[in-house]
Amino acid sequence: MLSFIIYLAGIWTYHIAQSQSVQKAFIYAYIPILLLLPEYFQAITPGLPDPTFSQASSAGLFAVFIMKGSPGYRFSNTDIVVGVFALSVAISQYLALGYADAQNLMFNQLTSVFFPYIFAKSLIEPFNLRYDFAKTLVLCLCVVFIGNLYENKMGINLWQMLLARFFPGQGSGWVTTFRFGLARASGPYGHCLVDGIMMAVGYRFQRWLQWSEAWPVKIKQLDWVPWFSPSQIFSLMIFGGVISTLGKGQWLAGIVGAAVVIIGRFKNRSLALSVVLTVMIVVGVPALIGFLDYASVGRANALDANQETACYRYELIELYMDIAAQHMWFGWGLMNFPDVPGAESIDNNFLLVYLNHGLIAVSILLGIIFVMMVRLIRHGMSQPFAEPKGSSLAFTLAAIYLMYFIATATVAMMYQSGTMFFIIIGLSDAYLMSSNSDINPSGSKNQVIIDTRKFKFRRVI
């Protein structure tokens, strides 16, 4: 019964949505609940799905969203794509294990995939709340960073220590791991690599806020910090959050994603795009070939722990592709595929989705990443140069998709990182539908003033 405290998240979000607005409930209730409370705790409810904190919040918010006439919602083809993905996952579980086992996954796909996508699409861009959304995300991740420092130092997860008493028998499988003699922080996200993904996303949003000059020059609560502006402090905290997870895959994803953002910071974006693509090809192709040579020697021949990890991830593809092909279209069902001895952990989200839910689901997932990335870059290239420099949301969102692709090739897209992915899709879709140019924090659109006069002098009378 103690686990029923989860339902307080749904009640609170419902109350804010009814008494204030659905938009405020999404940004100031749902997003903090999603980012600050673990998803591995559930309210065990006989005969009903077992919601997490964010799922209870999502259900409460969706009820009011529908009652108030779906404010801000506009249909697009992306709705169908996301809907088909969620449906294919639910069908896969039903075909593999029957309805009794599938009901929780069906509920999960609604409350952690489809509803958040609809919320982000309907309640951010249509109401000019992109800065409010990003600021809430950044502030929540700054709180997580403080908890991460405790975990780095003490080797104890703060969220488990405070909340596990309400959920006996839950979450104990997530343990703190170590690298370089330090504990790898996982925050409220279960795994340090998932924490790394969340922090990398937060860092990109924070840098966009910083370049957009969205934060005030001074914040009373931060006046005591010398030398740094609030915006710089938040950037340093989120960057510290990325480092605190000690996840090399996420660090690599952040570095490569930054290359996309660089394009939007140059006035000659065509030249910048050409340079970035050239560097990626010139550096990336030899690096990929070198990595394949490095990782294909087999774990038995690895020279150190790093090479052994790379070999393991390389071997996963060889070991599991034939198993995945046996249930090609809808997969084996969630974690129902046969284990290969010595390779029980599937450290590749795309392989895991293929095994769990089949070719349809993994194809849609990859399609969303690359199609959205191309659409956003094309949109950003077609717009006037955004002032202040770096304030184009298009290149920031495109970078996040590239980061997700690289980072989730080394870890499952689970818990909050999966929900955040679909929130990014919803935000991106609404941005592409409604935004002809970027909007600065004051609400006015960036404009490029073109001097149409043929001659550069004026007649003075």
What's the helix count? 15
Give the rounded overall mean pLDDT.
91
Give the SSE order as H and E letters.
HHHHHHHEEHHHHHHHH
Helix content: 55-70%
Alpha-beta classification: mainly alpha
State the low-pLDDT regions, or none: 447-461
Key descriptive features of the protein:
single chain; disordered C terminus; 461 residues; 15 helices; mainly alpha; two-stranded antiparallel sheet
Secondary structure blueprint with pairings:
Blueprint: H1 6-19, H2 22-36, H3 53-67, H4 77-97, H5 99-123, H6 130-154, H7 158-163, E1 178-179, E2 182-183, H8 192-211, H9 230-244, H10 248-264, H11 269-295, H12 305-326, H13 349-382, H14 393-407, H15 416-434
Antiparallel strand pairs: 1-2
Q: In a few lines, what is going on in this structure?
A:
The protein is mainly alpha-helical and 461 residues long.
Structural commentary:
The chain has one domain. The chain has a two-stranded antiparallel ribbon with strand order 1-2. The chain is mainly α and 461 residues long. Helices cover 63% and strands 1% of the residues. The chain has 15 helices and two strands. The termini are far apart. The relative contact order is 0.12.
